[in-house]
């Protein structure tokens, strides 16, 4: 028995040292790649493409606005928190643009893979594919199984292929909101809400067990308008369909129909297995299937100067404001990081105009106000300030947008939600359940606002006055920025969210268009001639070591470690709870909407 124990122990040591040795070898070559990448930081990297090549757009995984630096975090690695590197929308669009203009790229191949992205993000990709086709180059798309997100983009393809064993998911547009009041009552936690805005429903899940009638009404209208746009957009790309085809397919539960039915209804052009696609693409470009060279948008984007022209003396700055607005946040929009960046751009004589790319549901009132003031400072320099809205630009996201010289929004952008609220937790019931009796002695009633007591009527009156004052400041800012009367803003505010077409009709948005449209307008307004200015993206993205290690093939290693370590749901719950508790009680935040195609 003792001999067996020592043999097992020895084999464990040997296995561990072999693993360390293999890790070290991989790391050595990866670090060489890191040094090469960092060493050439000041030089433009480029990729040489071969003739009759194909641009492959892989719709797999999460799509974010702009590249995000990873964190060199071994605990995250071990717990599987870094399995997938998100694709960046601005890089994908840039690469598609390069593919359109390249003489070597003669076609595009869309590989459908269940993308996780909001409708506006996928609409930007759909429009980019449609623009690619204007060059006369063909677009083919294939799916084993096709989600609505896949289909929305792939509907622009000249030919759409579906696996004979596959299916098409068309089920409509909607989302589910979880309500927590009964749960909070059980544990003895009470949420006190003070707000302005009939439709300001972001806090409803904490104070009610069901959705209010105004909240449901605004979502019915929002989802209906967006679904109608999606149906028309798909029909525009698929001549075999009409505006109502998607709606009928959803009502008929086409997701459970066989692929032959999907083909017969005109949603796809041909049934084929993935192994056949190499030959199909080869025939398209005049090569043998295994001789076709494929390039990703990320690879082609390396050949472009767009977003990297930091030395140009006639520069249009594109500043990304992505995520929830908070203070001292490592993710999302941290006003203490964004405000100095805006100030720096304002004071830079080489920056002639600013395009603020907003993709935010809002957040902290304080943070929104600080960013708004910094943007006012930028405008005081006499430079054009333009906004381009992404998936969301609502509540605090609209606060920082509304004073722009011109606002562009994607047709599927969600915006508005002009209103604020305060949400205060009270654990008086919880501490009683735990047998704890808090006793407070204070000189003034304000000192008694505590987690351990429900707010008094006097305190609630003061808190409501504070919210009312913040709402008035919000309304005044919108009225001034959009050149509207305050009375009119109050009519259309009330915390209500709108799709971009509605917002345009209400003059909350000026133009339906893309980020490229916003950049072109900013350059024109600044008096810059075409091809005589550069575009620079901020915050300036530089991959850290973790990003480059991942790009050197560490994803597989990560997955293997994750299998060994297993999941750690407790840490996820702790992190989520901590995130909620770190939030400021004063919020300009839109209602929760889990509107993602995946």
What share of the residues does DSSP label as strand, in percent? 15-25%
Number of H- or I-type helical stretches: 22
- The second-level CATH architecture of one domain is Alpha-Beta Complex
The structural class is alpha/beta
Under the CATH scheme, which class of one domain? Alpha Beta
Describe it:
There is one protein chain. The chain is of the alpha/beta class. Among the domains are: 201 residues, 2-enoyl-CoA Hydratase, Chain A, domain 1, CATH 3.90.226; 188 residues, 2-enoyl-CoA Hydratase, Chain A, domain 1 (Alpha-Beta Complex), CATH 3.90.226.10. 45% of the residues lie in helices and 18% in strands. It is built from 22 helices and 21 strands. Strands 9, 12, 14, 15, 16, 18, 19 and 20 form an eight-stranded mixed beta sheet that branches. Strand 14, helix 15 and strand 15 form a beta-alpha-beta unit. The N terminus is likely disordered.
Features:
single chain; about 600 residues; alpha/beta; 2-enoyl-CoA Hydratase, Chain A, domain 1; 7-stranded parallel beta sheet; disordered N terminus
SSE topology:
Layout: H1 2-39, E1 53-64, H2 74-78, E2 87-88, H3 89-101, E3 105-116, H4 119-133, E4 138-143, H5 148-154, E5 159-162, H6 181-187, E6 190-196, H7 204-207, H8 213-237, H9 245-251, H10 259-264, E7 270-271, H11 274-285, E8 294-295, H12 297-301, E9 315-322, E10 325-326, E11 333-334, H13 335-347, E12 351-360, E13 362-364, H14 365-380, E14 385-394, H15 396-399, E15 406-409, E16 414-416, E17 420-426, H16 428-433, H17 457-482, H18 486-492, E18 497-499, H19 500-505, E19 511-512, H20 515-525, E20 534-538, H21 545-565, H22 569-582, E21 586-589
